[in-house]
């Protein structure tokens, strides 16, 4: 099984790219994780935020691979403990499909993107910068994989 992260936004700060790259490298033998960056919609004075979100949604949907299990990161989704995420990851593995995780833009996901998702995952009630969510996602996937492999990374 492989995983892909489709994220709205380009050119993360160096510390995000470095941290994401570190966990991407650590995950490589358990769950290869590719990053696909999608250009954000045009925002600003006189611009329509709903149109920007719709444009992002179209680009996200165009980047979705066929037959993958799609998980949208969404504040209204289901929250998991680290152990619960490991159990969820094991469930996803048993399906025999690749995984796709989606991070939306400033307003979140377009409605059609949420409708196309197989499930929604919430990282909790905090609002996090979307670039930081990339790093948190990669770390939590690594933690879940390490739990499943009885690796000592996770110490509760």
Helices and strands, with pairings:
Blueprint: E1 3-8, H1 14-27, E2 33-38, H2 49-63, E3 69-79, H3 82-95, E4 99-103, H4 111-116, E5 119-122, H5 130-148
Parallel strand pairs: 1-2, 1-4, 3-4, 3-5
Helix pairs in contact: 1-5, 3-5
How does this structure look, described?
This protein starts with a strand and ends in an 8-residue tail after the last helix. Helix 1 (14-27) runs parallel beside helix 5 and helix 3 (82-95) packs across helix 5 (130-148). The chain has helices spanning 14-27, 49-63, 82-95, 111-116, 130-148, and strands at residues 3-8, 33-38, 69-79, 99-103, 119-122. With 156 residues, the chain is of the alpha/beta class. The mean pLDDT is 93.
From the N-terminal CA to the C-terminal CA, the straight-line distance is 27 Å
SS content category: alpha/beta
Give the radius of gyration. 15 Å
Topology order in helix (H) and strand (E) letters: EHEHEHEHEH
Which whole number gives the mean pLDDT?
93
The strand line-up of the biggest sheet is: 2-1-4-3-5
Stretches with pLDDT under 50, minimum 5 residues: none
What level of helicity do the residues show?
40-55%
Percentage beta strand: 15-25%
Total E-strand runs: 5
Shape designation: globular
Sheet with the most strands, sense and barrel status: 5 strands, parallel
- Helix count, per DSSP? 5
Describe what is shown at a glance:
One of its GO terms (biological process) is methylation. With 156 residues, this protein is an alpha/beta fold.
Note the main attributes of this structure.
156 residues; 5-stranded parallel beta sheet; 5 helices
